[in-house]
What we know:
Blueprint: H1 3-16, H2 20-34, E1 40-47, E2 50-57, E3 65-67, H3 71-79, E4 83-85, E5 103-111, E6 114-123, H4 131-148
Helix pairs in contact: 1-2, 1-4
The chain binds methionine sulfoxide.
Amino acid sequence: MKNPEILDSIHRLVSAQPDATSLLAEVVSLLHRERPHYHWVGVYLLQSEELVLGPYVGKPTVHTRIPLNQGICGAAASSGQTLIVDDVNADPRYLACSLETRSEIVVPIIHKGRVLGEIDIDSDQPAAFTPQDRKLLETIAGLIADKLS
Ligand code: SME
């Protein structure tokens, strides 16, 4: 699927899914299925100043709760900005989930200026995430933000 088709599918999921958890589960599995270089796709939700892992597809991770001052995930959530890390091993903030991971993108989910959580994607390819990936994922984060609020 091209990016516009992915967005159409997400629009349909947003209308059809009755609750946030099933929506997020559908969204992460759609992204994982449609983009083979997205090796790990998950959503963290902000709960009491901590990022708590929600639905994900990929290998299990030890990082099921991440404080806001830790990791690339914490940095993205506390700044409210998308972070793309082309080489995770060169970033001192990086919390490793899998030895194979080479690059990562984290996109905050923001509703009315408040960070509700984030989409986190790891790739086994270095520098896997392009400006088009960023645009796609930021649009998706905006679409799901309403449903989480
Ligand atoms: N790498 C993240 C931790 C989460 S795992 O990628 C699933 C980080 O540095 O915050």
